[in-house]
Structure formats: C-alpha cells, structure tokens
C-alpha cells in the first residue's frame, strides 16, 4: 500500500501535418509518438522488500519477469474507493529513498512505467 499518489502521466506528442493542393495548404495537428504512461507513488519505508526485489528484476535485465499487470485504487478520507486504474505490463522504472522534508521520516518513492493505463469504474 502507498500513502500518496504523486502523479499519473500519459502523453502523446503533437506533430504538424501539411496537406497541400494546387489551391491551398492546410496545416493540421495530429497525434505523434506516445510516451509510455507512468505512475509515481510514495509511502513510508518499511521492512517489506518486495518492491526492491521487483525493481532488481529490471536492473538485471529480466524485463519479461518484471512486467506485471495490476490495478491501482484510490480512496477518499472516509475509506471509500473513488478512482481505479488498470496498468498493463507495469514495472518499477525508478525507486527513490529519502527523508520527507524536515520530518525525519524515511520515504520510498516508486515510479511505475506501463504499456497502457486505463481508468476503470470502481
């Protein structure tokens, strides 16, 4: 479990397409290269080493074993689910350990990269 959603990012580059005829030139904006979706999550450090072991699979080059599909459910203050995302073939592309502000609390920040992200109903 993670205590904080830092960000969900999915983007497509915009490219210019020019269509020319003898009488006019039309400039259109079209979708270009897709950037792989990422999700960044944060939690207090614990003794659990599952995330470190999963990230190690990526470092060692075993990306086939590292790719896992999963769901991310977000809850409101009452504990009710408010949003759910399905991540296809996700893997931890970045793991950061650091102290949160001046609190002295050790935090783990994980960035997941996936092939596809889709919001689903809760």
At a glance:
By secondary structure, the protein is mainly β. It is built from two helices and six strands; from the N terminus they run ββααββββ.
Please provide a written account of the structure.
With 122 residues, the chain is mainly beta. The protein has one domain: Roll (Pnp Oxidase, Chain A), CATH 2.30.110.20. Helix content is 11%, strand content 65%. The chain contains 2 helices and 6 strands, in the order E-E-H-H-E-E-E-E. Strands 1, 2, 3, 4, 5 and 6 form a 6-stranded antiparallel β-sheet that branches. Strand 3 and strand 4 form a beta hairpin. It is elongated. The mean pLDDT is 94.
The helix/strand class is mainly beta
Mean pLDDT value: 94
Q: How much strand content do the residues show?
A: over 45%
CATH architecture: Roll
Strand count, sense and closure of the main sheet? Answer: 6 strands, antiparallel
Q: Please identify the top-level CATH class.
A: Mainly Beta
Count structural domains: 1
Strand tally: 6
Weakly predicted, low-confidence segments:
none
The span between the termini is 17 Å
- Overall radius of gyration: 19 Å
Roughly what percent helix? 10-25%
Shape: elongated
Please specify the SSE layout and strand pairing.
Elements lengths: L3 E17 L4 E20 L5 H10 L3 H4 L1 E8 L5 E20 L4 E9 L2 E5 L2
Antiparallel strand pairs: 1-2, 2-5, 3-4, 4-5, 4-6
Provide key terms for this protein.
122 residues; six-stranded antiparallel sheet; mainly beta; Pnp Oxidase, Chain A; elongated
């Amino acid at each position: 479990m993670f205590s904080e959603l830092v960000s969900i990012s999915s983007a497509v580059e915009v490219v210019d397409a020019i269509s020319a005829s003898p009488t006019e030139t039309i400039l259109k904006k079209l979708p270009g290269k897709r950037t792989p979706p990422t999700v960044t999550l944060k939690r207090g450090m614990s003794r659990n080493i599952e995330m470190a072991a999963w990230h190690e699979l990526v470092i060692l080059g075993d990306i086939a074993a590292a790719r896992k599909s999963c769901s991310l459910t977000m809850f409101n203050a009452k504990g009710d689910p408010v949003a759910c995302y399905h991540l296809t073939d996700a893997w931890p592309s970045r793991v950061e350990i650091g102290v949160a502000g001046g609190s002295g609390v050790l935090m783990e920040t994980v960035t997941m990269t996936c092939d596809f992200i889709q919001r689903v109903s809760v």
